[in-house]
Amino acid sequence: MVKICCIGAGYVGGPTMAVIALKCPSIEVAVVDISITRINAWNSDQLPIYEPGLEDVVKQCRGKNLFFSTDVEKHVSEADIIFVSVNTPTKTRGLGAGKAADLTYWESAARMIADVSKSNKIVVEKSTVPVKTAEAIEKILTHNSKGINFQILSNPEFLAEGTAIQDLLKPDRVLIGGRETPDGQKAIQALKDVYAHWVPEDRILATNLWSAELSKLAANAFLAQRISSVNAMSALCEATGADVTQVSHAVGKDSRIGPKFLNASVGFGGSCFQKDILNLVYICECNGLPEVANYWKQVIKVNDYQKNRFVNRVVSSMFNTVSGKKIAVLGFAFKKDTGDTRETPAIDVCKGLLGDKARLSIYDPQVSEEQIQRDLSMNKFDWDHPLHLQPLSPTAVKQVSVVWDAYEATKDAHGVCILTEWNEFKTLDYQRIYDNMRKPAFVFDGRNIVNAEKLREIGFIVYSIGKPLDPWLEDMPAVA
């Protein structure tokens, strides 16, 4: 019986291994993590992450051929294939600070694998890692091998949160990078055989190690670039009276471009886009390609600009001050159908409003008060370290209250900011919300999900990103 072990029980490791267990009943899959609370959650009825369809998959396999354990060394030593899905945060100090990936957790995982292994292993990079990480890991393993043969593969994930289970069940492609040696090719085939249980052969692509690593960074950079492109256009639309949804619809009808990732918004978030682009920038700089580095930097700059522009719209619309005013924030996760808040635009928007002394009342159907308070009080890259290494009890932000109902959040508020495109926000009773708000009552739609005309008929002053401006807003500065 083939045994698979995954080090890291997070957003990638947990769902990926659950689907492998579901589709490969003859393979024993163990997910290990040093976090006792996280493993306990995976073994409970309240999984540590929210992802549609995940609970069903886990319950079908858990205890049969899918196991969650803190006994890391036991499962690593017994495994034939080891997936490594540990954090790769952005460095905050030292060489490459603010751009380069911190490989501390990766390196310690590699050293532990070398220490406990008594048989040949295939070690698979599953975390998003900078190009050439495999080479570094290979060096650690071969220099500590004690005669054991380690083969390193890169198998980047291409999951979108909110649809991760579907992405795993029906992937566009599975990418496996390995050495172009007989042993390397055998290792690629062994991993191909796992995925071939349910993925058509023509969708399993084999490349060299570096191509696989770079493909992941390139894919995320291209997707983020599309979002920043349409967001840059949204600013121009507001300035000229064009409608960004009409523009993006027309552009998306071109078969060479396509319609995906062309929705204007308050900005992109998630654990990968910014981190991977910073990583790409660093690699370009290290390889003497400053023009290429600057090109990709601009994608992040436009994203930051979009968040700042949104905050400035809110403040300038409300008589240039939100000091002491209650602002309702609907949605904190970086997108709908996930509870993930990593790099969510809501953090920067909320911090911007708090900087002007607003009082915030936040509602998100999947994000806890504890998580929101942590996010608003943590330093920029702290979120990407394992939980036990994050600040233990960040100080709560006093001007923030977290409530469990959109109507409670909006009661007595001066303005409403919609920051996540949860379906329930489209069907709220906005007449009821308006009746209970201070006047003039404002709605700032950061996701373009509400019918602005209907809201204006009720009496709201409405700002929708990239749409023709409400007369109230026409003479207000978009950028401070």
From TrEMBL:
Biological process, per Gene Ontology: glycosaminoglycan biosynthetic process; UDP-glucuronate biosynthetic process
UDP-glucose/GDP-mannose dehydrogenase C-terminal domain ranges (all copies): 328-452
Enzyme Commission number(s) from the entry: 1.1.1.22
GO molecular function: NAD binding; UDP-glucose 6-dehydrogenase activity
Keyword Disulfide bond assigned: no
Pathway: Nucleotide-sugar biosynthesis; UDP-alpha-D-glucuronate biosynthesis; UDP-alpha-D-glucuronate from UDP-alpha-D-glucose: step 1/1
Keyword Transcription in record: no
Top-rank taxon, per record: Eukaryota
Listed GO CC annotations: nucleus
Catalytic activity: UDP-alpha-D-glucose + 2 NAD(+) + H2O = UDP-alpha-D-glucuronate + 2 NADH + 3 H(+)
UniProt keyword list: NAD, Oxidoreductase
UniProt: NAD(+) binding residues: 8-13, 33, 38, 86-90, 127-128, 161, 272-275, 342
Residue positions of the active site: C272 (nucleophile)
InterPro entries: 6-PGluconate_DH-like_C_sf (IPR008927), NAD(P)-bd_dom_sf (IPR036291), UDP-Glc/GDP-Man (IPR017476), UDP-Glc/GDP-Man_DH_C (IPR014027), UDP-Glc/GDP-Man_DH_C_sf (IPR036220), UDP-Glc/GDP-Man_DH_dimer (IPR014026), UDP-Glc/GDP-Man_DH_N (IPR001732), UDPglc_DH_euk (IPR028356)
Pfam families from the UniProt entry: UDPG_MGDP_dh, UDPG_MGDP_dh_C, UDPG_MGDP_dh_N
NCBIfam families named among the record's database cross-references: NDP-sugDHase
Family designation: Belongs to the UDP-glucose/GDP-mannose dehydrogenase family.
PANTHER family in the cross-refs: UDP-GLUCOSE 6-DEHYDROGENASE 1, UDP-GLUCOSE DEHYDROGENASE/UDP-MANNAC DEHYDROGENASE
Protein name in the entry: UDP-glucose 6-dehydrogenase
Organism annotation: Nelumbo nucifera (Sacred lotus)
